[in-house]
Design goal:
With 292 residues, the chain is of the alpha/beta class. The protein is 43% helix and 21% strand.
């Protein structure tokens, strides 16, 4: 959503101390934000479910559902999992700061609250969220395959191309299969190749943020081993070898050099392959070998 044209953004403040609510409310209103208020975790979840804000300021320690469990609930709901959460915590509560990051917070401010610091943090994270939204729209438009996955392997966002390629590999609860677990630990300099029945899927990390890890996905077709081609299409061993390299785009002369036969013999094998597969072109034969 990221606010209306008349607003700098919509911020939900969650705190059980009236003085903190009043101070933050006045500071945010003064900076042209639309402000929602909740005095506890349950009310925060209800209000964010009805009107998802652009950012959440969340007190770490509250009666009932504390801030950590509230944040965990935000991150488990599809409509709120992408929203940046900034924790408010005491200056010396290091364990609370670490726990806030563990449950999905993107930042923290310490008490006593300094309004100018809060406004600066909010502006920074909203800008990053808007930038990410624009990037996602651009990726949708150009047809790149990109996904965002959280620490539980749940896909929170994907482009249409990624949805087409990955739908067989996503469980009913929205999680990528276990084979993709290593995606979550990729650095920006690394890639991961996952071999599936018909293709290799190559994953590269783009960025990590409150929504999870965003990955670029590319597709690399795989060719079955010659023994598999021989068994599936009633080919001779040599015919299977030729079809294998045809599927990899090799020319007849290349295949002759690789296998150790004359180009004329490759031509003969190719004629037999075409007849057995019921095709007339190298491209059609390669497509059948690739299982398309």
């Amino acid at each position: 959503m990221l606010g209306s044209p008349q607003s700098a953004g919509v911020v939900l403040i969650v705190d059980d101390v009236p003085e903190n609510l009043a101070m933050l409310h006045d500071a945010l209103i003064g900076a042209d934000y639309t402000v929602l208020i909740a005095t506890g975790g349950e009310l925060a979840l209800e209000r964010a479910g009805r009107l998802p804000p652009d950012l959440i300021l969340l007190d770490a320690l509250m009666p009932g559902i504390d801030g950590f469990e509230t944040c965990r609930a935000f991150k488990s709901a599809a409509e709120t999992q992408h929203i940046p959460v900034i924790f408010m915590t005491g200056l010396q509560e290091t364990q609370h700061i670490l726990r806030g990051f563990e449950v999905g917070g993107v930042d923290y401010v310490t008490k006593p609250i300094k309004p100018h610091e809060v406004l600066a943090r909010i502006a920074s994270h909203l800008k990053r969220a808007r930038d990410m939204e624009q990037i996602q729209l651009a990726l949708d438009a150009v047809g790149r395959a990109v996904i965002t996955v959280n620490e539980d392997r749940v896909v929170s966002w994907q482009t249409p191309a990624a949805q087409t390629w990955l739908s067989p590999h996503i469980e009913s609860d929205g999680c990528l299969l276990d084979a993709f677990q290593a995606c979550l630990t990729l650095s920006e300099a690394q890639s991961l190749k996952v071999r599936t029945a018909k293709t290799n899927l190559i994953f590269r990390r783009l960025v990590g943020d409150a929504r999870g890890i965003t990955l670029l996905v590319s597709l690399q077709s795989t060719v079955p081993d010659p023994a598999v081609l021989q068994a599936n299409f009633a080919l001779t061993g040599r015919e299977a070898d030729v079809l294998y390299w045809i599927a990899y785009g090799k020319t007849n002369r290349d295949i002759a050099d690789i296998i150790g036969m004359s180009p004329r013999t490759v031509d003969k094998h190719l004629e037999h392959i075409f007849a057995k597969l019921g095709v007339e072109t190298r491209t059609a034969a390669a497509s059948i070998a690739l299982g398309r």
